[in-house]
């Protein structure tokens, strides 16, 4: 007899193997780099440096976190710069 938790984990993987993954954007790191998650099997992908989708490994998670921090600080700096120029 199969354990129900094993059975529930098997069904989404079987669905994805038959019909393909249904990826949705789970996180926007920058305008060009995004993280995707399959709605059925929860497989995670990200955009690589050359624009291809690759599996989201701990290394890519760290890269995306650093990239997001740099991007956010740059956007905040640009907002302050445009705000200061509109006041003058």
Q: What is this entry, summarized?
A:
With 88 residues, the chain is α+β, with helices and mostly antiparallel strands.
Primary descriptors:
single chain, 88 residues, 2 helices, 4 strands, elongated
Describe this protein's structure.
The chain is of the alpha+beta class. The protein has one domain (15-86). The chain has two helices and four strands, in the order H-E-E-E-E-H. It has a four-stranded antiparallel sheet with strand order 1-2-3-4, with no helix packed on it. A hairpin with a 5-residue loop joins strand 1 and strand 2 (34-38). The chain is elongated.
Mean pLDDT: 87
Number of helices: 2
Q: Main beta sheet, described?
A: 4 strands, antiparallel
Radius of gyration over C-alpha positions, nearest whole angstrom: 19 Å
Distance linking N and C termini: 75 Å
Order of helices and strands: HEEEEH
Q: Which blocks of ≥5 consecutive residues have pLDDT under 50? A: none
How much helix is in the residues? 40-55%
Number of strands: 4
Task: State the domain count.
Answer: 1
**Within the largest sheet, what's the order of strands?**
1-2-3-4
Helices and strands: which structural class?
alpha+beta
Which term fits the overall shape? elongated
Beta fraction: 15-25%
